[in-house]
């Protein structure tokens, strides 16, 4: 898992240690295992939120872990052109490459540690595909896509695209230097990530060394989730076991705690975990396929608008943010 790393973690700003006398570590409410499936043209995913009450996830709607898979030449796959309305998609690449194009003019190529943040808002069409050279060569592919809901007042916001380079994320060290913390969006201990969000959230990718623990201050009005991308460890003061492909939901408190087992498999020598949380929207959610709305009438209208071509048209050609043709 390359993402973004540093040669000397000890030079980074450190997350201050929590005071045991005053910190309220969030208890673990549940640990669930993500089932496997396929998305788009057939790339393997794990449905991270399957079986979890939407009220515990709010403002998040859906999350897929894409891969981890080693493709043979000719095997890499993506998604065909498809519509979205009413929410934001966050695509984070850990290994491999993914190209994005949309009918609003957004797009680019992301690779190790980069993020594409697309606000669908009022609606658009988009496509995600591996670049041609990766299709020809094959290779490792691993990442995730998160869907973040938009409140009613923002459902029809103008579409927006953010290209977030790995080098722009905020990097922190745990208090003892045993964990690397990458802040993609939101704020942790006074440090903010580059992602600009309509819905207040925090999104962190942490790598915890074997035998080390990580405690992060967490907004009390946010929910808190931890999804393990690789490795084994525990969550909470209860030391609840957790491993790759599992999601922990935390209860109320002001600190989130994860720890890595002292012994790890050679394929995943450290604990890699996504920590995410946000301010619950607490509005009705009516979702089907690529649309996330507040009412059934809005959902029907989204399908009608798509069929009528009102969500945009597929561009004849697209130039990404670097000026290269896809």
From TrEMBL:
Domain of life of the native organism: Bacteria
Cofactor(s) demanded: Fe cation
Residue ranges occupied by any Pirin C-terminal domain in the UniProt entry: 204-311
Coiled coil stretches, renumbered: none
GO MF assignments: metal ion binding
Domain Pirin N-terminal: residue ranges: 43-148
Alphabetized Pfam families for the sequence: Pirin, Pirin_C
Cofactor note: Binds 1 Fe cation per subunit.
Keywords carried by this UniProt record: Iron, Metal-binding
Residue sites binding Fe cation per the record: 82, 84, 126, 128
First and last residue of the signal peptide: none
Name of the featured protein: Pirin family protein
Family: Belongs to the pirin family.
């Amino acid at each position: 898992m390359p993402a973004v790393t540093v040669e000397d973690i000890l030079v980074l700003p450190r997350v201050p240690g929590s005071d045991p006398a005053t910190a309220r570590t969030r208890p673990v409410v549940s640990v669930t295992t993500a089932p496997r499936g396929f998305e788009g043209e057939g790339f393997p995913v794990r449905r991270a939120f399957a079986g979890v009450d939407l009220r515990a996830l709010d403002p998040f709607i859906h999350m897929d872990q894409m891969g981890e898979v080693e493709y043979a030449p000719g095997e890499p796959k993506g998604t065909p052109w498809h519509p979205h309305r009413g929410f934001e998609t966050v695509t984070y690449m850990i290994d491999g490459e993914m190209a994005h194009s949309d009918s609003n003019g957004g797009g680019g190529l992301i690779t190790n540690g980069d993020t594409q943040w697309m606000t669908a808002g009022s609606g658009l069409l988009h496509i995600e595909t591996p670049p041609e050279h990766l299709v020809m060569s094959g290779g490792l592919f691993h990442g995730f896509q998160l869907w973040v809901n938009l409140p009613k007042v923002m459902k029809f916001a103008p579409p927006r695209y953010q290209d977030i380079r790995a080098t722009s994320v905020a990097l922190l060290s745990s208090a003892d230097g045993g964990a690397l913390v990458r802040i993609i969006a939101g704020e942790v201990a006074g440090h903010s990530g580059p992602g600009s969000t309509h819905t207040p959230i925090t999104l962190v990718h942490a790598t915890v060394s074997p035998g080390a623990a990580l405690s992060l201050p967490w907004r009390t009005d946010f929910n808190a989730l931890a999804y393990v991308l690789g490795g084994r460890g525990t969550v909470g003061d209860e030391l609840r076991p957790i491993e790759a492909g599992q999601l922990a939901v935390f209860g109320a408190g002001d600190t989130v705690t994860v720890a890595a087992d002292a012994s790890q498999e050679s394929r995943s020598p450290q604990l890699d975990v996504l920590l995410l949380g946000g301010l619950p929207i607490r509005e009705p959610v009516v979702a089907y396929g690529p649309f996330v709305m507040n009412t059934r009438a809005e959902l029907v209208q989204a399908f009608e608008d798509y069929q009528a071509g009102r969500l945009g048209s597929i561009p004849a050609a697209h130039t990404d943010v670097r000026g290269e043709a896809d």
